[in-house]
Amino acid sequence: MPRSMGNPLWAPWRMEYILSKKGGSCVFCGIEAAPPEELRARLVVCDTPRAFVVLNRYPFAAAHLLVVPHAHVDALEKLSHEDHHALFDLVREATVRLRAAVKPEGLNVGLNLGAAAGAGIAEHLHAHVVPRWSGDTNFMPVLADVRVVPQALEKTRDYLVPFFADLPGVRLPAASEGAGTP
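RE: above sequence
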């Protein structure tokens, strides 16, 4: 039997993002010129000449990555041939490396193109790579207004960085104390 459209799916943790200041400079731009300390502060996992991997600040699951081209465009057809290939090569590499790093049972990979499609940052194209495990969606967000993400974002970034270190032309964020430990 189909569900009534009157039953909402609540995601109250998204209010932090919804209410945050928008506009100004693009949160994804400037990575290619950022020093390693800034890469670390911006939760960048790795930076390649045409695209980079960053942790989502408002994750739907642990180790939720965004793969972002350096080119500031809002649509796939606006990417150059080289940027398109670099983006999707890095998406593929992110899936391989997440499987090795966090051993997910599955992955969600996708793009939300445009605000109407759910893009939180519609002006700069980016792909989501979300590791998934059986039972990772549970009653906690609905009943307790709480998401269970088992590790702080900074620790997750530090843990993931070594898994991306061997990519050709990669630039990594500055190391944190205790980096690389789960």
